[in-house]
């Protein structure tokens, strides 16, 4: 009978996730300028790729990945999160990225099962 | 006297299931109450964003979704005619977990709130 082992970490590792997400963002909108026609496709791609890579890590977490892209126009943008969970096992990580024409903010929340 | 515990439940009781429509109503009420007539001010908006997240989280927590872990995300931005897009994707148990989101806009700002509920088995 196979024993379920909890593995090396039942805790959320924020640095690793942040590097992974940054790579996903670079891969999708790395050298591009804000384009209203493509924005839907871009955000969907970023979120999809991030989630796929997170799943490949094989950890016992449920994931919520949120991506916001905003055109640079001098306007301000603020985000805040409030979470009701188990602080010992669950965690989140937010990655901010920008280029000449747009800002991208991706938040990953991992909730232990 | 043995007290009943619900740690054996792997699915929520229908009454205790995360109901997106109800949560969306709560979000809508809170946003309407807190943001009507508010102007974007870079000094006070960070605090406002944080406090909105806390308020929405407390409201949903007290709505009786007992075995749910909650994640609330609030985004407030200034309205200057720019384009914004927010997308989310989740890897979870679609039978038990769900989300609710709402948007509020006025002349000077826009506000997006998303609440995600994940069942704790």
From TrEMBL, chain A:
Its main location: nucleus. GO terms for biological process: cell division; microtubule-based movement. Transmembrane segments: none annotated. It is found in: Chromosome, Centromere, Kinetochore; Cytoplasm, Cytoskeleton; Nucleus. Acts as one of several non-catalytic accessory components of the cytoplasmic dynein 1 complex that are thought to be involved in linking dynein to cargos and to adapter proteins that regulate dynein function. Cytoplasmic dynein 1 acts as a motor for the intracellular retrograde motility of vesicles and organelles along microtubules. Probably binds BUB3 as part of transport cargo. Required for the efficient progression through mitosis. Homodimer. The cytoplasmic dynein 1 complex consists of two catalytic heavy chains (HCs) and a number of non-catalytic subunits presented by intermediate chains (ICs), light intermediate chains (LICs) and light chains (LCs); the composition seems to vary in respect to the IC, LIC and LC composition. The heavy chain homodimer serves as a scaffold for the probable homodimeric assembly of the respective non-catalytic subunits. The ICs and LICs bind directly to the HC dimer and the LCs assemble on the IC dimer. DYNLT1 and DYNLT3 compete for association with dynein IC (DYNC1I1 or DYNC1I2). This is Dynein light chain Tctex-type 1. It comes from Cyprinodon variegatus.
Automatic annotation (TrEMBL), chain B:
One of its GO terms (cellular component) is cytoplasm. GO terms for molecular function: dynein intermediate chain binding. GO terms for biological process: microtubule-based movement. InterPro entries: Tctex-1-like (IPR005334), Tctex-1-like_sf (IPR038586). Belongs to the dynein light chain Tctex-type family. This is Dynein light chain Tctex-type 2B. It comes from Cyprinodon variegatus (Sheepshead minnow).
């Amino acid at each position: 009978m196979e024993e379920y082992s909890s593995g090396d970490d039942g805790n959320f590792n924020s640095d690793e996730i942040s590097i992974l997400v940054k790579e996903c963002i670079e891969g999708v909108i790395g050298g591009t300028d804000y384009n209203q026609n493509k924005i839907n496709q871009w955000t969907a791609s970023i979120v999809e790729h991030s989630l796929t890579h997170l799943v490949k890590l094989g950890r016992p977490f449920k994931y919520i990945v949120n991506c916001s892209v905003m055109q640079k126009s001098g306007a301000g943008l603020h985000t805040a999160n409030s979470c009701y969970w188990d602080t010992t096992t669950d965690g989140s990580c937010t990655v901010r990225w920008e280029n000449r024409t747009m800002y991208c903010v991706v938040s990953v929340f991992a909730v232990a099962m | 006297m043995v007290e009943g515990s619900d740690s054996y439940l792997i699915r929520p009781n229908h009454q205790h299931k995360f109901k997106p429509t109800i949560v969306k109503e709560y979000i809508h009420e809170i946003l309407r109450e807190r943001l009507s007539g508010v102007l974007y001010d870079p000094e006070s908006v960070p605090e406002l964003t944080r406090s909105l997240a806390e308020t929405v989280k407390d409201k949903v927590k007290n709505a009786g979704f007992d075995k749910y872990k909650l994640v609330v995300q609030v985004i407030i931005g200034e309205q200057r005619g720019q384009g914004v897009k927010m997308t989310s994707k989740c890897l979870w148990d679609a039978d038990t977990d769900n989300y609710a989101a709402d948007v509020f806009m006025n002349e000077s700002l826009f506000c997006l709130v998303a609440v995600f509920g994940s069942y704790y088995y």
